[in-house]
Write a structure and sequence with these properties.
Blueprint lengths: L2 H73 L6 H11 L5 E8 L4 E3 L15 H9 L3 E2 L3 E2 L6 E10 L5 E10 L2 H7 L8 E5 L5 E4 L19 H7 L2 E7 L2 E9 L6 E7 H4 L1 H47 L15 H61 L1
Antiparallel strand pairs: 1-2, 1-6, 3-5, 4-5, 5-6, 7-8, 7-11, 9-10, 10-11
Helix pairs in contact: 1-2, 1-7, 7-8
């Protein structure tokens, strides 16, 4: 495997590590951001639930105060007249959101403030609110109903009062109009988006910023109506569902005083737009990072392998006996540059050495030729001497 292939493999490994780290980082950021968004939505709904709860408690204060006053008067043995009691009811009914204030007691008195005295005509003991206050022993709220006189939605706050022996003596009932819920439900939004719902524990729709009819069955609302019982059991939470408008997020809480459910439905894409944006950013970063790593690894591989390939080619030329090749350019100051410079020096020294060896060889050849010529002459002289000696020998 060549160096370039090794660098490509290295870039792949680094890319995989980068992708793994980015994916882990994305899911961590996604989880944290999702929790933050859900917490913000839940806080918005919870704040509105607490606001409605506080409003109901404030409206019930005149009823509770009137009942406490009746208890104190009973403990003191005071027996106010009908006119005095009606005057007291008038003080309690001064709030513009209280439609009517009524007193009922064990003696059969049924005294409304605005309407005529119903004592002897209407038995308070047969009224559900009277029995509810007697059984609860504290201020409670009735189910919501539609007022026959005004057509408004009304909830009654009922508080019991007691006689001298702390025996149940009667109850005060204040009818509170719920027109304000229209304004309240319109404010149930997450960053300007969302549809608000206020649902009674009986399942009736009390208010909405959507298109549904008031006092209709909330269980018939597509998407989350079938989860109504679960929501009342849990008290608060959130979930996703789908309807004709697409995927939605529904967050809800309950009002402690009445058990009403306050919910908000928001488009999923709007809620998690930041999450989707984060997903896009991480995707772009991962792809760009992978391309950058591959590009840089290829660049580094090219810078390393190019001079090494040139060195290999130069070495092959020298091995074939070609000493006339040009010196390699030194393009870097790293180890490869040092190796190239050393190779050029070796090439130069080798050329000089071969040149010296060639010159010496020529000198040796010339000396050898001269020695050969001298030897030839000596051989001829020896032959001549031998012939002369022979002739002398023969003459002798």
């Amino acid at each position: 495997m060549g160096i370039k292939q090794k660098f490509i493999m290295l870039s792949g490994i680094v890319g995989i590590i980068l992708a793994a780290v980015s994916v882990i980082g994305y899911f961590t950021a996604y989880s944290n951001l999702e929790e933050s968004v859900n917490a913000e939505i839940a806080a918005t709904v919870r704040a509105e639930g607490e606001s409605v709860d506080g409003w109901l408690r404030e409206k019930a204060k005149p009823v509770s105060s009137q009942a406490d006053l009746m208890t104190e008067m009973g403990a003191a043995g005071m027996n106010p007249s009908t006119a005095d009691m009606k005057h007291l009811l008038a003080v309690a009914a001064s709030d513009k959101d209280i439609q009517e204030m009524t007193r009922g007691d064990e003696q059969g008195m049924f005294l409304p403030y605005k309407s005529a005295d119903e004592t002897g005509k209407t038995d308070p003991k047969k009224r559900p609110w009277y029995s509810q206050a007697r059984d609860a022993g504290k201020t409670v709220y009735t189910d919501v109903y539609t007022s026959k006189s005004t057509g408004d939605l009304v909830v009654s706050a009922v508080a019991p009062f007691y006689g001298p022996n702390k025996q149940f003596a009667g109850a005060i009932c204040g009818d509170i109009t719920l027109n304000v819920l229209k304004e309240r439900v319109a404010k149930i939004k997450y960053r300007g988006e969302g549809t608000g719902y206020i649902i009674e524990k009986t399942g009736k729709l009390l208010a909405t910023s959507g298109q549904e009819q008031l006092m209709s069955e909330a269980k018939d609302i597509p998407g989350f109506g079938d989860k109504l019982d679960t929501m009342f059991q849990k008290g608060n939470g959130y979930f996703t569902y789908k309807n004709a408008d697409g995927e939605q997020v529904f967050c809800y809480t309950t009002v402690p005083t009445t058990g009403w459910l306050i919910g908000m439905s928001i488009p999923y894409d709007f809620v998690f737009a930041a999450v989707n944006h984060l997903k896009l950013i991480y995707g772009i970063l991962i792809i760009a990072g992978l391309f950058l790593i591959v590009f840089m690894c290829l660049q580094f591989a090219g810078r390393i392998t190019k001079p090494i390939v040139a060195l290999e080619g130069q070495a092959s030329q020298l091995a074939d006996g070609n000493l006339q090749v040009e010196a390699l350019p030194v393009t870097s100051e790293d180890e490869i540059g040092s190796m190239t410079s050393a190779f050029n020096t070796m090439h130069q020294h080798l050329r000089e050495l071969i040149g010296k060896m060639a010159s010496t060889s020529e000198q040796v050849a010339a000396s050898s030729e001269e020695l050969t010529a001298n030897a030839h002459q000596s051989a001829q002289a020896a032959v001549h001497v031998a012939e002369t000696v022979g002739e002398v020998s023969q003459g002798m």
